[in-house]
Each structure stands twice: as C-alpha cells, then as structure tokens.
Design a protein that fits this description.
Oligomer: single chain
Shape: globular
Number of strands: 0
CATH superfamily: Globins
Bound molecules: protoporphyrin IX containing FE
Radius of gyration: 15 Å
CATH topology: Globin-like
CATH class: Mainly Alpha
Number of domains: 1
Number of helices: 9
Length: about 130
C-alpha cells in the first residue's frame, strides 16, 4: 500500500497541507519568502506534489524542486535554517493529525531526500559542507 493510501488519501493530504501552511505562514523566519505568493495556488501545487510522491512516483521530483526554489536560494538566501523550519512544521503537522510514526518517518525521509534539490546543491557540495 502506498503512503497516499495509508495516510487516508485526498482528505488526509488536503488536511495536512492546510495545517502545514498555517504553521509556515505563522513563522516569522519563513513569511518573507511567501510575501508575494498566491497561497491558494501554492496549496494546490503542494497537494498535487505530495499526492504524486506519496503514491510512489518520485520521477522528476528532484528537478522540479530544484527549479521551483532556485530563485529563492539565489535572491532570498533560502538555506538550511529555512529548510529545517519547514521540515519542523511538516513534522508537527503530521503529529497533530496523529499520522502513525512509520508513515511520518517515511514522509520526513522523503522531505530530507529533497533537501539538496530545494537548496540547489549538488551532492558533492553537501559532502564539502559536511567536512
Ligand atoms: C521538502 C521540502 C519542500 C517541498 C516538498 C516543497 C514543495 C514546493 C512545491 C510543490 C512548490 C510549487 C512549485 C510550482 O509548481 O510552482 C513550492 C514552491 C515554493 N516553495 Fe517550497 N517546498 C519545500 C521547501 C521549501 C522551503 C524550505 C521553503 C522556504 C521558505 C519553500 C518556499 C517556497 C516558496 C516561497 C514557493 C513559491 C515560489 C514561487 O511561486 O515563486 N519551500 N514548494
């Protein structure tokens, strides 16, 4: 069974994204990034993206995330602290919705695996940073 089915399908994904963006927009570290973003469109795109990857289709996810956030890295300084904050809000959202731990672990693992793409880093840079 996919994460999508196990979590409870559309209703669960929609509830998670709604709660997630309430938390993100209430975080002063993150609000500057969303100042001029149409949040209904953003929620719709995030629901579609989570639905796709929770169904197990991760093809193209890396490139999509890299392209979607590239200008935020270059122009607005999107970096580790922001990624950690967003991941924290996602984790808190899943806990609030009583998502079982084994699913939360998988979802947080999927988010972590997209970090290099979101921050427009290559794996080599990551190794260099960690040295
Ligand atoms: C694994 C983590 C993340 C995922 C899965 C994710 C997912 C997405 C998706 C699906 C989009 C829509 C792209 C499109 O089709 O236009 C998007 C855009 C966006 N994301 Fe993320 N994101 C992540 C991390 C972050 C972080 C850490 C920030 C920092 C604040 C952020 C801020 C934004 C902003 C501001 C946009 C809108 C860009 C625009 O419309 O110009 N995201 N993200």
């Amino acid at each position: 069974m996919s994460i999508y089915d196990e979590i409870g399908g559309d209703a669960a994904v929609n509830a998670a994204v709604d709660i997630f963006y309430k938390k993100v927009l209430a975080d002063p570290l993150l609000t500057p990034f969303f100042d001029s973003v149409d949040m209904s469109g953003q929620s719709r795109k995030q629901k579609a993206f989570f639905t796709t990857i929770f169904k197990g289709d991760t093809a193209g996810a890396d490139t999509y995330m890299r392209n979607a956030h590239k200008s935020l890295v270059e122009d607005k300084g999107l970096s580790d602290a922001h990624f950690a904050a967003v991941a924290g809000h996602l984790n808190a959202t899943l806990n609030e919705l009583d998502v079982p731990a084994h699913l939360t672990d998988q979802i947080m693992g999927a988010a972590a695996s997209l970090k290099d793409a979101v921050l427009n880093r290559s794996p080599a840079e990551k190794i260099a940073v960690n040295q």
